[in-house]
Amino acid sequence: DGGEDEHDEL
Amino acid sequence: MNIFRLAGDVCHLVAIIILLLKIWRSRSCAGISGKSQVLFAIVFTTRYLDLFTVFISPYNTIMKVVFLALSYATVYLIYMRFRNTFNSENDSFRLEFLLVPVIGLSFLENYAFTPLEILWTFSIFLESVAIMPQLFMITKTGEAESITTHYLFFLGLYRALYIANWVWRYHTEGFFDQIAVVSGVVQTIFYIDFFYLYVTKVLRGRGKMTLP
Predict the structure, then answer these.
(1) How far is CA B30 from CA B41, B137, B143, B193, in A?
(2) Phi and psi dihedrals of B143, rounded to 5?
(3) Chain A CB contacts of B16 below 8 Å
(4) pLDDT band for position B207 (cuts 50, 70, 90)
(5) What are phi and psi of B210, to 5 degrees?
(6) pLDDT tens, B8-59?
(7) B176 vs A3: CB contact, 8 Å cut-off?
(8) Cα first-last separation, chain A
(9) How many A×B Cβ pairs under 8 Å?
(10) What contacts B43, CB < 8 A, 6 or more positions away?
(11) What is the pLDDT of residues B87-139, one digit of tens each?
(12) Which member of B9, B111, B178 has the closest CB to residue A10?
C-alpha cells in the first residue's frame, strides 16, 4: 500500500 | 527536491508571511478566520513531530521550524494580541464537522498503525480541509480584503505546484504517496472556485473581492 518509511515532503 | 516542490514551499511561505504581515501592519485580523489558522497550526504540529526523530536535510528541518513558528505567531496575533479586532461571530464554521471525519479517516486509511504515522495522516487530511472556515467566512461576509485573497492565491498556488511535484516525482523516480496525493487533489479543488473569483474580481483592480 505504498508504505512510506519517512516523509520527506513538508 | 525539484523546482515544483521548491516553488510550492516558497509560495506556502509567502502566503503565511503575507497573512502575518497583514495582521501585524494593520493591527487587525478582521476578515480572517482564526479557526483556519488554528487548524494550520495543528497540521504543522502533528506533521512535524518527526522533527526530533528523523533528519531529512537542513532545508527540511529549517522550513519545519519556520512554518511552526509563523503559524503559532499568527494564531497568537489573532487570539491574543489583536483579539479585540477578531470578529468571532463571522468565524462560525463548526470545526467538529472537520475534525471528526478527519480523525476517523486517519485511523482507517494510513500507512502504518503507529502514533507518528496516524498523526502524519491526520495532518495530511486536516490540511486539505483547514481552509474551509476561511472560505466559509468569505462566502458569509460576501467579501474579502485583497490581501486576504492574495494569501489564498499563494496558498492555492502552493497546492497546485505540489501536484506538479508529484507528477514530476512519479515520472522521474516512480514516487507515489497515495494519501498525500489524494488529499492534495481534494485540497486543490477547493481553491479552483476561489481562483476563478480571484482572477475575475481581484486582478481586475476591484480592490475588494465581493462575491455575487
Answers:
(1) 19, 11, 11, 22
(2) -155, 165
(3) none
(4) low
(5) -110, 130
(6) 999 999 999 999 999 999 999 999 999 999 999 999 999 999 998 899 999 9
(7) no
(8) 21
(9) 32
(10) B123, B126, B127, B130
(11) 899 999 999 999 999 999 999 999 999 999 999 999 999 999 999 999 999 98
(12) B9
CA distance B162 to B184: 8
Rounded Cα–Cα distance for residues B88 and B198 (Å): 24
In this complex, do B111 and A3 lie within 8 Å of one another by their Cβ atoms?
yes
Interface predicted TM-score (ipTM) of this complex, two decimals: 0.86
Largest CA distance in chain A: 21
- Check: CB of residue B111 under 8 Å from CB of residue A1: yes
Beta-ladder partners of B144: B209
CB atoms within 10 A of CB B27: 10
